[in-house]
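Here is one chain, start to finish.
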Amino acid sequence: MTSPEYRVLARKYRPMSFGELIGHDTLVRTLTNAFESGRIAHAFMLTGVRGVGKTTTARLIARALNCVNGPTMTPCGVCDACRAIAEDRHPDVLEMDAASRTGVDDMRELIDGVRYRPVSARYKVYIIDEVHMLSKQAFNALLKTLEEPPPDIKFIFATTEINKVPVTVLSRCQRYTLPRIPAETLARYYGEVSAKEGVEIEPAALALIARAADGSVRDGLSILDQAIALSLGAAISEASVRDMLGVADRGLVFDLFEALMRGDASDALDRLERLYNAGTDPAMVLQDLLDVTHFVTRLKLERGNDAAATAAPVADGFDRKRGLDLAGRLGMAALGRSWQLLLKGLAEVQAAPQPLKAAEMALIRLIHVADLPPPAEILKLLQDGKAIPAGPGSPAPGPGGPGPRAELRPVAGGAATALAVEAPAPEALPQNFAEVMALVQAHREGILYDQLASGLHLVRYAPGTIEFRPEPDAPRDLAGRLGQFLQGATGTRWIIGVASEGGEPTWREQETARRRREFEEIAAHPMVRAVLAAFPGARIVGHDEEIPPEPPPAEEPMPYEEDDPGPFAAGAWDGEQDLGDEP
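Its structure:
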């Protein structure tokens, strides 16, 4: 049974002097110089993530100001002022939580107290935690006092969201940013605490706790406290900490990462399900995969540096040999794509009502592109007239026929593996843009057909690649929609490029010109000319109503006299041409 006098580690090991602060050397050095030179500000703003020591630092500053030997950066800790401040019972050191006292009335009460001198201390110190929670009216009420306080008044503010503090308040304070504590420093500190508590703990477990703390000393001490309670006096192992935190084993994460990189969807989803059934949060799985991606990328950059390659950070928790092997087989393009897709997938998993399904979709999306060859290889395939390989996640084939069959084989320069695809024969792909337009029309994509016909100037065409210049009023996503349609219709991934100049007339302009030529050929036919000449005011109808009226033909019909019977008079036809049956 827990003793009622027990104090959690976060309170038991709260720093009692500036020398015990870890990871904040810059702050300590600045304050030391300020105290030694007598340049002590009247207002301090401490900012940083939760658990890095903002409130602790504020109390240490209050002790440094009011120690009987002070102001000094090395308060004695035994005088009445030091002990009273440490025990949070000094009448002149007032600590207020802005989260529960946000109104202007609370601030006016504080300002009224500023008018009175300290009871027993050298300075009256106001510590306001989470100051960003104050209302706008409360900030406004504080401004004047904050700018010109009495000489024996000091303000110390702490906040985790500095962006919510008005600039007018920030400009009246000395700002100190308390950074996250490095994982290596945290692991070393937690090892010292464990030794003081008489607890045996594995170094890998310390590294895991430091990583889970995410730069927060207090969070890590709380996790360590929980791990000590879990061990029941036995040594704390890495496995027990993993089970407690619901974190996947790094070896299993490496196995999942390798399955993703070789495009094995079945194996990857099976491993994800096993991790989930073991109690691992899907979001943590994606976070671990992000860590692996970053770890392997850093190793790839360090491969030429022997010193860097042998120095492993204590809190990595990764198999460095396995990471180096992956770094040698994976390209930077594959790692960069993996990072972007996992980062996007993590946000989706955190917001999804069913995290496991969202994680599965994120991994499937990663598998779909992880095996793509790099851009240089894609360009070479296009130059050789070959189709672009399609990944295992390619869309289902369109009505044109069955999709390509795929098999895995190593490909140099890309990811760990790339996909060799039995692409459709070149004859199956549209051989020119006219066939593309016919394909769009055959699939009854009326809107896309109209946008292509009127908004696209073809610059270059080859089976599998199209480059065009869009009209100013063409949809911005025209290239993407065209590529998506062609991939679904042909089973092959197309490269669609957009140029800024050049190109043929649009398909509609070409079609109009073609019909105009037909119109001109019909109008120039001797029989048609004769009919038009015989019947003044007659015109050609039924060819294309959209064709604009044309200027008179270059060669005018021969005029004839009024008494001239014309070409259709009796006996005028030579009988060599058949006009067809008379109506």
